[in-house]
Amino acid sequence: MIRSVLAALLGLVVCLNTQAQTFLTYKNVAYDTISGVDEGLLSMDVYVPKGGRIELPVVMFVHGGGWQGGDRSKVDSLAKAFTDSAWVFVSLNYRLAPACPPCDPTSPSAVRAPLQARDVAKAIAAVKARIGRYNGDGRRICLLGDEAGGHLALLVCTNGEFLQAVGVDASTVRALCSTGSPLYDVSRTIESTTGDERSLYVNAFGSDLAEQRRASPIDHLTEGHRYPPMLCYSGDAAALRGRLAAFADSCAAHERAIITDVIPNIDSIRVFFRAAVPLAPLSVQDDVTALLTVRPNPAHDVITIDGVVANSTITVLDVLGRALGSMEHVDGSVQFLLPRGLPSSVVFVRYEHKARVVVQPVMIE
Q1: How far is CA 203 from the centre of its chain?
Q2: In the chain, which end has fewer C-beta atoms inside a 10 angstrom radius, N or C?
Q3: What's the Cα-to-Cα distance from 218 to each of 62, 67, 117, 233, rounded to whole Å?
């Protein structure tokens, strides 16, 4: 079984649990009903920042588990990391493939990945239509998928049939981050693997070549299709890195995929998502940070930051979360000279003072 990346992500934010809870939780929100299917598999949990702010951007989390396991629960630390930055966080379930082992790839009634992608798309449609009840903005949805969930997120955003079937425009998903998807080209991967790994994949995708291609993100990278920006982490194994490299090569013409060989931390994921939804509200500001203002000067690639409180740390980051410059123990006004050749016209100013962190997107074009 491929090692879960979610544990590493949660490890980066576990310290947040020592703080008072700052979000409300709505459990078991149904996004669909299918006769004979456990309603828990077609539902989601919604985490909403306290404070009554409305029209917040939304991140939807698709769990991993080899397409046969996993659950939407146990993401409180991850939910807190996003809700503290003024996002509504949604963690969803989907129907599961049969347990493997034992594996039965011939069962005609077994749940396969295309059905799971259909569930994810249905959840997106429900969030778009109803997230306003939870202070979210259905026009600004980002996907975060772990392992098998990363594959399903990529599949929904590359194979347009799933969103089209539920009446959702492809532009609804503004960005996606896949942390450790094991599959991009299903049929080729199944051909090249053996043993338990091959059984796991056949269990999830079946033996029909057409269905395998239907579930392959790489097979739907076509000109004219609208893809969201994609941040993809492959995992540690050489085989996984090779599969992602092939997918990235296919994405090159679209200039939509950003590949990372290190686990993207929470900050870099939030920064990446904010680049896709630049109108997102800032993190909650208190009396210490209320006077903070950022003034870009495009002619000289200079950012001026006013209202900095003494003993603060200011960091400027690009869309991948990489620091472009940092100043510690500053007071008053500071200036940053930006380097040429940035990968995006958006940078982010991270302001830290004691326990308060504010991240603000800045357009520089």
Answers
A1: 26
A2: C
A3: 19, 18, 15, 16
Q: Cα dihedral sign for 75, 76, 81, 87?
A: positive
Q: Which domains does the chain have, with CATH numbers?
A: 6-276 (3.40.50.1820), 293-363 (2.60.40.3080)
Q: What is the DSSP string of 256-274?
A: -EEEESSPPPHHHHHHHHH
Query: Average of pLDDT values for 17-22?
Result: 58
The CA–CA distances, whole Å, from 236 to 1, 22, 177, 329 equal 13, 34, 17, 37
Residue 48 exposed, middle or buried by CB count within 10 Å (0-12, 13-18, 19+): buried
H helices of the chain, in order, are 6-13, 76-83, 113-130, 148-158, 161-165, 186-192, 195-205, 209-214, 238-251, 266-276
Taking alpha carbons only, the member of 50, 77, 49, 72 closest to residue 61 is 72
Could you tell me which of 100, 143, 95, 145 has the C-alpha nearest to residue 115? 95
Burial class of residue 95 in the structure, from the number of CB atoms within 10 Å of its CB (0-12 exposed, 13-18 middle, 19+ buried):
middle
Least confidently predicted of 71-80, 102-111, 190-199: 102-111
Would you say the C-alpha torsion 322, 5, 160, 36 has a positive or negative sign?
Answer: negative
Query: pTM surpassing 0.90?
Result: no
CA distance 151 to 178: 7
Give, for 276, the enclosing helix (H) or strand (E). helix 266-276
Where is 204: in which H helix or E strand? helix 195-205
What's the pLDDT score for residue 1?
Answer: 37
Residues in the chain: 365
Average pLDDT value for the chain: 81
Any bridge partners for residue 60, and if so which? 90, 143
d(CA 141, CA 62): 13
- Cα 125 from Cα 91, distance rounded (Å): 14
CB atoms near residue 19 (< 10 Å):
10
Work out whether strand 230-233 and strand 173-179 pair parallel, antiparallel, or are unpaired.
parallel
Backbone dihedral angles phi then psi of residue 162, each to the nearest 5 degrees? -75, -45
